[in-house]
Design brief:
By secondary structure, the protein is mainly beta. It contains two helices and ten strands; from the N terminus they run H-E-E-E-E-E-E-H-E-E-E-E. The strands form two sheets. Strands 1, 4, 8, 9 and 10 form a five-stranded mixed β-sheet that branches. A five-stranded mixed β-sheet has the order 3-2-5-6-7.
């Protein structure tokens, strides 16, 4: 097990070679919005950092396929967005949300899984999380919820899906999107080279912009929620 502090400090370097040069984009299409869902945490975990596998100084990690999740937040012109507040939340390996209202499989909740994490993007718009590969939830294909805020306001709510998962074709929420929009939310979870414990990595870039059909749905759920305010 890699020391936790080392994981958090080195996480952004894992896929740094894959980040492209700023200024090469024009009129990017906004990452498609998706519902926040009913299970955004109603009680925050004791730990809210970007390592969802270990809570505080616990020596017992969460169960699941270790996944290094990273990406870049950009505006519509392709400029990296610094200090964007990125949140993720997802079920544990037993398909249980952190939210206390999720009683589907509550007795089997992995109490070592943080279930929620947050990260402030760096000067190049980059974010990083260490989490687990998402699993199916009753009625849903595997997914990770994302919320992106600026100046305390939620500006995008979306979800990341597993590319090629067989349940994708049956997921009603995912299949409301056009083929092009759907493709933007499908992440390619790949084996991490040289990992001796079967770790995965996935890159999910996020664009904050305006899509042609977005004008009538500006008020995404959670927009007025003051999740965080810069100092």
């Amino acid at each position: 097990m890699i020391h936790r502090r080392r994981v958090l400090q080195s996480g952004l370097a894992i896929t740094s070679a894959a980040f492209t040069t700023p200024g090469l984009f024009a009129d990017l299409v906004q990452t498609p919005s998706q519902t926040e869902g009913p299970f955004y945490p109603n009680q925050m975990p004791l730990d809210t950092d970007n390592d969802l596998l270990v809570i505080n100084d616990s020596i017992t990690p969460a169960v699941g396929e270790i996944t290094h999740l990273s990406g870049v937040v950009r505006d519509q012109s392709g400029t990296p967005v610094r200090n964007a507040f990125v949140e993720i939340w997802q079920v544990d390996a037993n398909a249980v949300y952190l939210h206390t209202g999720d009683q589907t499989n509550r007795d089997n909740q992995d109490t070592n899984f943080q279930g929620y994490g947050r990260f402030l993007t760096d000067s190049q718009g980059r974010y990083y999380f260490r989490t687990i590969k998402p699993v199916s939830y009753p009625g849903r294909t595997p997914h990770i919820h994302f919320g992106v805020s600026k100046s305390g306001q939620r500006v995008l709510t979306t979800q990341l899906y597993v590319k090629g998962h067989p349940n994708n074709r049956k997921d009603g929420l995912l299949n409301r999107l056009s083929a092009d929009a759907k493709a933007m939310l499908l992440g390619d979870f790949q084996s991490l080279p040289d990992s001796k414990i079967g770790e995965l990595s996935v890159k999910f870039d996020i664009t904050l912009g305006t899509t042609p059909d977005d004008d009538d749905r500006k008020n995404l759920k959670g927009v007025a929620k003051p999740l965080w305010k810069p100092r």
